[in-house]
């Protein structure tokens, strides 16, 4: 009878282990829109107009109405997802271990106008730059 | 060929057969004609001309409020002279958009990577109360889409 040597046995155990415990790493990236361009500091409350805002920032992602004027919303969304999964795919299909981490961050710029189309408020937030790579 | 030499080949083939690549493309609506956009003139082009050139917009919005002078009691009771009314026009606009999304994925045995990127070309045209173009803004972002995920991301 032919003996199985130690190295072959180890290799078989590793292959069987990998087949039995199917694990993996998942990385996902989701982008919507483009990073905001233009500097909100150039907008002057009470002076800058809708035309100025459109020229600097382009068409807004969303236009909303408030009781005292309109608002332009500019947005850039990002979603980073990573996971480590260890599963048994053959007999039970059960996930033995799962670790996930996700960041759903966005850059937002909101410009408020009065009824005459003059800027009366600006708010900007840049969150996507703070997202970790992994 | 010995059994020891074949084994790595079998393992390699097994990995190759289990792995894969995913590429997806989504297109929504049709590209905006930049030559037509260049012809839009503030204070000149009318809403009818815009509709004729670009067709029906994806988004239409208008808000009109009526501001009534005088006290609330006077208005509610209906007594006294008719208060002055002023029409206040909020944003009145058409939006034309062309959306594209690229999906890219690498599926390996122990590592999987997926990426989805969506960008739009957007044209927003504001009208005044006489239905003449007041403001126009256009931005082309679909050409910034990476073709093959992170490899082609600028």
What topology emerges from the helices and strands here?
The complex is a heterodimer of chains A (134) and B (154).
Chain A lengths: L5 H15 L1 E11 L17 H8 L4 E5 L2 E19 L7 E19 L5 E8 L8
Antiparallel strand pairs in A: 1-3, 2-3, 3-4, 4-5
Chain B lengths: L2 H16 L1 E9 L5 H5 L8 H8 L4 E10 L3 H6 L7 E23 L3 E17 L5 E8 L14
Structure description:
The complex is a heterodimer of chains A (134) and B (154). Chain A is of the alpha+beta class and 134 residues long. Chain A has one domain (6-130). Helices cover 17% and strands 46% of the residues of chain A. Chain A contains two helices and five strands. In chain A, strands 1, 2, 3, 4 and 5 form a five-stranded antiparallel beta sheet that branches. In chain A, a hairpin with a 7-residue loop joins β3 and β4. Chain A is rod-shaped. By secondary structure, chain B is α+β, with helices and mostly antiparallel strands. Chain B has one domain (16-152). Chain B contains four helices and five strands; from the N terminus they run αβααβαβββ. Chain B has helices at residues 3-18, 34-38, 47-54, 72-77; strands at 20-28, 59-68, 85-107, 111-127, 133-140. In chain B, strands 1, 2, 3, 4 and 5 form a five-stranded antiparallel beta sheet that branches. In chain B, a hairpin with a 3-residue loop joins β3 (85-107) and β4 (111-127). The two termini of chain B are 47 Å apart. The A-B interface holds A 11, 15, 18, 23-34, 50-51, 54-55, 58-60, 63, 65, 69-70, 115 and B 7, 11, 61, 63, 88, 90-91, 93, 95, 109-120, 122-124, 126, 135-139, 141, 144, 150. β1 of chain A pairs parallel with β4 of chain B, so a sheet runs across the interface.
